[in-house]
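Researcher: Let's do a round of design. I'm pasting the structure tokens now; please hold your answer until I've finished.
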């Protein structure tokens, strides 16, 4: 039954108004009426209290205990007159005290439910009115108090704390004597609590019930008639306690009344000594044996109590004898390792102080309850990796407190470790090495030693011994590469890092400290000779970094091979060598060098001849250049920078050949000045230039005549062009120079002619008359420069001189050239040469032809003499 009382006050009109009770209230009143008709005056009392509390400003619900979880208590929102829809917007929550939330509020419908089963006897012990206080808090922080009264139901029956009661009465006890009995207890309250006692029928006893000042009822057993042991030695009575619930619940206690006899016999044990064997692992409370003593007396005179006689305190904490039954049981743990045998003395005593004694012999049987114990007696801190097998590392002592097979212990170590156990004296084991050790593979071991006994089941324990392997210098340094190759550009700064070698040593400490050094090769000169390696590079002894001691020049040194030695710090030290190749990379630091045409000290070059009848593509000459660099830095290209007649000549981009680009015109000047630029392919590119003078003429007199006029014009221009006389000093020096050069030229020419005449003594040298032909002139060739891998082109030109008159004609047939050097010309090839008369005839014009004439392998050089 749920009851609810409610009183709310409206703050709008400051008047107290009684609101309409809910349907639960009406149901509660109807239930109260029914209970009133049926005699439920107590429930009506609670209903009236709820109605009275409605005026106190709080809601109170009344529910019975032991309701199911989820049972409905009441509609809080409706009973408080709150707007459920408005509350859903701002929220409503339940606040309760205590650790256990017995109630739950459904914020959606406003119902209060039971969240946990309520046991009134648990939360309200011996309290007449059990109230649970709750608070309802809405979203506007308004608090409503709610009390829930938990009413009692008759769910507990009266009970006696001791269901077996024993009374010892002498047969001479006076009739009418009362004996107090134990009180029955009932956890319920009110009418559901204890209401009375009843005793089973017996002619010798009756029951007297009294009510105390606190309302509790007490029972006394009253002897109605004198006892007679011979008639009946034991009286069995049943005491019943009842409550006032509906239905009525009750509890009983058995009362055993023993009629005591006069004491004239002492107790006697069934045997003088009791023996028992027990495992040490038996739990506390195990019954070991039962001693038995009898008394010929009857009644109380034959009642015997058992106890130990002069027992030590330690043993009293292990064994206990029941004073009534004589049962010997354990109250503590047995330990075979402490005591294997106990001797106890037990005493049997009756109520007349007559007694007898007997011995109890307890033998404790060992069980495997102790794990083996491993103690490390001595241990080496480290062992060298070169220690031979059988080296003792640790000494172990193994012990098990058990006996027999339970105390027999075997030790073992993992099979994958290079160690084994060797038994010494008694329980001592030695941990020794089984095979060679290698610190580089494993620097240390954690050896787990396991000791196992032979019990059933076996017990084991383990301990770990840390074994450190000390290093020995048994490994040479190892380079990270089998050989090293490094590259450095030429013109590097001094001290530049060119390469770095690295070596590692698997050893430890000083044995693994690696130092680097250069291995200098032995030179043929002996100790006084210095290796180019020592003067070129150095190595850092700690890091292995190789530095340049000087700036390298690719044109002088292209590679440097040496060896580096890595040596550890062991004793004796171990070392390893490695080969290092240092390649010098080229940089574009050399300008092209022009080999042909060669420049004189004054910067002038020879004169190249080209006939005016030349067709386009006629090869005039070739500029030959080399570059001391390599690769693309030595790739040369040729370019015509300047020309007297633009468009008349062109230069091959890769070959350097100067050819006519068109036919020679009459208006083209006799003397053509060309400037050729030779450039390499480096970054940045370097270049060189050369000036080439080309004379356009079909005959030698024409060449000399044109050159004379050009010389005169140049002299006139040098004199100021206004008829000014040349300077005397300059004329003197120029005359001396011309005379010297002319003398040297004629001397060379006479020597050359004499040499040719001697070689050609068997050949016709000159023809009669004014004309003559030279033949058999050997071909000259350009000699390559040492160290330059380039071929020079040789060019062949044929010329002939005819003397039909004072003026000789110089003819230029089609050129014959090739891309390779010619070694020799055949003897049948006649090369015309100028005669001495022609040279003298031109002496007046002071124009001379110098150098090799256009015969195969020679060049024609013309000097202008002013």
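Researcher: That's everything. Go ahead.
Model: Designed sequence:
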């Amino acid at each position: 039954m749920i009851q609810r009382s409610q009183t709310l006050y409206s703050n709008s009109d400051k008047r107290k108004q009684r609101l309409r009770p809910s349907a639960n209230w009406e149901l509660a009143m109807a239930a109260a009426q029914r209970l009133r008709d049926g005699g439920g005056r107590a429930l009506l009392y609670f209903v009236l209290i709820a109605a009275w509390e409605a005026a106190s400003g709080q809601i109170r619900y009344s529910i019975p205990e032991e309701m199911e979880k989820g049972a409905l208590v009441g509609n809080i929102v409706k009973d408080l007159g709150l707007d459920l829809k408005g509350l859903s917007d701002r929220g409503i929550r339940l606040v309760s005290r205590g650790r256990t939330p017995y109630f739950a509020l459904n914020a959606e419908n406003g119902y209060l439910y039971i969240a946990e089963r309520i046991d009134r006897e648990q939360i309200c012990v011996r309290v007449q009115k059990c109230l649970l206080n709750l608070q309802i808090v809405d979203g506007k922080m308004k608090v409503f108090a709610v009390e829930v009264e938990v009413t009692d139901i008759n769910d507990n029956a009266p009970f006696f704390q001791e269901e077996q009661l024993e009374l010892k009465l002498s047969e001479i006890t006076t009739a009418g004597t009362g004996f107090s009995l134990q009180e029955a207890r009932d956890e319920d309250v009110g009418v559901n609590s204890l209401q009375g006692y009843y005793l089973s029928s017996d002619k010798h006893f009756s029951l007297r019930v009294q009510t105390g000042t606190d309302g509790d009822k007490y029972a006394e057993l009253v002897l109605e008639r004198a006892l007679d042991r011979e008639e009946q030695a034991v009286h069995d009575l049943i005491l019943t306690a009842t409550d006032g619930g509906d239905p009525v619940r009750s509890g009983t206690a058995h009362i055993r009344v023993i009629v005591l006899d006069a004491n004239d016999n002492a107790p006697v044990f069934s045997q003088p000594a009791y023996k028992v064997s027990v495992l040490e692992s038996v739990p506390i409370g195990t019954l070991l044996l039962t001693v038995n003593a009898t008394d010929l007396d009857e009644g109380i005179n034959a009642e015997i109590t058992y106890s130990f006689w002069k027992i030590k305190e330690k043993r009293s904490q292990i064994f206990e004898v029941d004073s009534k039954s004589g049962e010997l049981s354990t109250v503590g743990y047995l330990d075979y390792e402490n005591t294997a045998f106990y001797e106890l003395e037990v005493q049997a005593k009756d109520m007349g102080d007559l007694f007898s004694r007997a011995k109890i012999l307890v033998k404790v049987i060992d069980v495997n309850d102790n794990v083996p114990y491993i103690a490390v007696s001595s241990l080496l801190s480290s062992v060298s990796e070169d220690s031979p097998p059988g080296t003792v590392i640790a000494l172990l002592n193994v012990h098990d407190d058990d006996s027999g097979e339970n105390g027999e212990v075997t030790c073992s170590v993992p099979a994958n470790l290079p160690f084994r156990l060797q038994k010494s004296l008694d329980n001592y084991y030695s941990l020794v090495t089984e095979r060679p050790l290698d610190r580089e593979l494993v620097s240390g071991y954690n050896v787990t030693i396991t000791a196992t006994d032979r019990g059933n089941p076996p017990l084991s324990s383990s301990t770990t011994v840390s074994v450190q392997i000390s290093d020995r210098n048994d490994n040479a340094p190892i380079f990270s590469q089998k050989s090293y190759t490094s590259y450095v550009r030429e013109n590097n700064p001094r001290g530049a890092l060119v390469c770095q070698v690295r070596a590692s040593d698997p050893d430890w400490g000083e044995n693994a400290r690696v130092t680097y050094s250069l291995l200098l090769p032995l030179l043929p000169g002996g100790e006084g000779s210095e290796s180019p390696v020592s003067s070129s590079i150095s190595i850092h002894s700690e890091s292995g970094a190789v530095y340049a001691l000087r700036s390298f020049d690719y044109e002088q040194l292209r590679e440097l091979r040496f060896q580096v030695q890595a040596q550890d710090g062991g004793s004796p030290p171990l070392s390893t060598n490695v080969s290092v190749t240092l390649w010098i990379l080229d940089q574009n630091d050399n300008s092209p060098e022009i080999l042909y045409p060669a420049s004189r000290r004054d910067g002038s070059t020879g004169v190249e001849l080209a006939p005016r009848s030349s067709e386009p593509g006629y090869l005039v000459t070739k500029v030959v250049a080399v570059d001391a660099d390599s690769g693309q830095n030595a790739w040369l290209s040729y370019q015509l920078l300047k020309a007297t007649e633009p468009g008349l000549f062109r230069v091959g981009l890769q070959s350097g050949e100067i050819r006519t680009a068109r036919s020679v015109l009459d208006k083209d000047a006799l003397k053509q000045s060309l400037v050729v630029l030779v450039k390499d392919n480096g970054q940045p590119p370097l270049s060189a230039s050369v000036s080439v003078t080309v004379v356009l003429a079909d005959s030698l007199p024409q060449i000399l005549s044109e050159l004379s006029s050009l010389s005169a014009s140049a002299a006139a221009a040098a004199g100021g062009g206004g008829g000014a006389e040349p300077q005397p000093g300059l004329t003197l020096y120029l005359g001396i120079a011309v005379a010297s050069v002319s003398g040297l030229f004629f001397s060379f020419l006479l020597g050359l002619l004499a040499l040719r005449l001697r070689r050609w003594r068997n050949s016709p040298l000159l023809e009669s008359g004014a004309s003559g032909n030279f033949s058999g002139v050997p071909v000259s060739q350009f000699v390559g420069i040492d160290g330059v891998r380039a071929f020079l082109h040789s060019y062949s030109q044929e010329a002939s001189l005819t003397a039909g008159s004072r003026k000789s004609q110089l003819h230029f047939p089609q050129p014959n050239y090739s891309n390779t050097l010619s070694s020799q010309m055949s003897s049948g090839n006649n090369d015309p040469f100028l005669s001495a008369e022609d040279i003298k005839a031109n002496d007046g014009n002071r124009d001379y032809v110098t150098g090799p004439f256009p015969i195969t392998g020679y060049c024609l050089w013309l000097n202008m003499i002013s």
